[in-house]
């Protein structure tokens, strides 16, 4: 790693770039043998809470693929844990938060007073990672969106029907707004800490905003992310909002003030560009399962996305959601090479 690579930041600010930058959501993770090797010795939460280990796994995909940005290794669920819920990651079952947050009384028990102290291990990891990167590529910090965090806090675990969050929303909307308000404060303070510790950009993952009916999306998710963007506007640090749920969410987030919007794979990139390309940079949006496909298919799908921008700045290549654990690593190398090669031609 040598030389400074500002491609990712320049693309966000629509400054000239000589190619389209690429990183991928969940780029540090189980599809990498070197990650598996760390995980065979330490459990997931230990990796998150040990700055040396978090640094090592953050850097693994940068070393192997030369991505144009690193992303802090952590998890969105460290915030609910810091607020008082018990967090576990069960092998093959994903995360579990307990007890569930079900009503106003449960919400009143949650604490954010010392959130920075409880999450200080994240600040230490950021300092260590940015020291190691030493400006070679930018470091992205992140958080879950208030609505997505509230979803895990009420459901307690991944869910199909989102019964508990919706029950709270329709039976006691004031209580849910109280929880979301508390989460905005927690997220803004947490991201401020990450920025002060050295991240160059932040991304808010709103994985579940799209389960809301469109007329309630702004009230329960978009509006709270807009508040976070405003709280962070005092820093010189671009914010990306990634909501999964199609073109309507891009339309609703257009006026959030975010410098970049993440586009999921179910949204047509040309539609996203026509809808929000004037006000924000766009990130995405290759269907993550394209990476199971042949080289010809991967190349064809990459070109389809790159052609929407055709050499213009304002696009960061990414998947439309996280990479899956059984994607072959050589397909990822091929993806990175293809994005580099094809986008360089379009930028001439
Ligand atoms: O992108 C990166 O490389 C940075 C690391 C990162 C992780 N989680 C590591 C992780 C990021 C940005 C996240 C965000 C996250 N975590 C989200 C939002 C983005 C998304 O994918 O929708 C959500 C919803 C979570 C909560 C979470 N964490 C779930 C539902 C799971 C289980 C599902 C799964 O993929 O296993 C996790 C576990 C998790 N987070 C792993 C990793 C690498 C796998 C844990 C392991 O090593 O066993």
- Which strand order does the major sheet show? 1-4-5-6-7-8-9
Structural class category? alpha/beta
* SSE string: HHHHEHEEHHHEHHHEHEHEHEHEH
Bound molecules: coproporphyrinogen III
Question: How much helicity do the residues have?
Answer: 40-55%
Number of beta strands: 9
What is the general shape?
Answer: globular
% residues in beta strands:
5-15%
The low-confidence runs, each spanning 5 or more residues with pLDDT under 50, are none
Number of helices: 16
> Measured on Cα atoms, how large is the radius of gyration?
19 Å
How confident is the prediction overall: mean pLDDT?
97
- Taking the alpha carbons of the first and last residues, their distance comes to 25 Å
Give your account of this protein's structure:
It contains 16 helices and 9 strands. The chain is an alpha/beta fold. The strands form 2 sheets. Strands 1-4-5-6-7-8-9 form a 7-stranded parallel beta sheet. The chain has a two-stranded antiparallel sheet with strand order 2-3. Strand 6 (239-243), helix 13 and strand 7 form a beta-alpha-beta unit. The mean pLDDT is 97. The structure holds coproporphyrinogen III.
């Amino acid at each position: 790693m040598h030389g400074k690579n500002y491609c990712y930041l320049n693309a966000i600010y629509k400054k000239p770039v000589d190619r389209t930058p690429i990183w991928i959501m969940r780029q540090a993770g189980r599809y990498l043998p070197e990650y598996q090797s760390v995980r065979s010795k330490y459990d997931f939460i230990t990796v998150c809470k040990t700055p040396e280990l978090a640094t090592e796994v953050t850097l693994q995909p940068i070393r192997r693929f030369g991505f144009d940005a690193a992303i802090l290794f952590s998890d969105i669920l460290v915030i609910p844990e810091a607020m008082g819920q018990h967090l576990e990651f069960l092998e093959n079952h994903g995360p579990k938060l307990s007890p569930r947050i079900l009503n106003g009384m449960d919400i009143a028990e949650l604490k954010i007073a010392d959130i920075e102290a409880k999450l200080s291990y994240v600040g230490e990891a950021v300092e260590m990672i940015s020291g190691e990167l030493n400006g070679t590529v930018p470091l992205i910090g992140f958080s879950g969106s208030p609505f997505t965090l509230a979803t895990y806090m009420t459901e307690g675990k991944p869910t199909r029907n989102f019964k508990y969050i919706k029950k709270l929303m329709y039976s006691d909307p004031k209580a849910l707004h109280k929880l979301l308000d508390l989460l905005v404060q927690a997220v803004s303070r947490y991201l401020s800490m990450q920025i002060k510790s050295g991240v160059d950009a932040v991304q808010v993952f709103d994985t579940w905003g799209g389960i809301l009916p469109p007329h309630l999306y702004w009230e329960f998710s978009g509006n709270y992310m807009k508040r976070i963007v405003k709280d962070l506007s005092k820093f010189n640090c671009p914010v990306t909002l990634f909501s999964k749920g199609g073109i309507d969410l891009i339309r609703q987030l257009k006026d959030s003030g975010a410098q970049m919007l993440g586009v999921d794979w179910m949204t047509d990139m040309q539609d996203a560009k026509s809808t929000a390309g004037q006000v924000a940079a766009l990130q995405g949006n290759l269907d993550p399962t394209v990476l199971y496909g042949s080289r010809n298919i991967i190349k064809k799908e990459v070109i389809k996305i790159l052609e929407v921008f055709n050499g213009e700045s304002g696009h960061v290549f990414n998947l439309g959601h996280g990479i899956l654990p059984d994607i072959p690593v050589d397909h990822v190398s091929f993806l990175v090479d293809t994005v580099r090669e094809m986008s360089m031609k379009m930028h001439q």
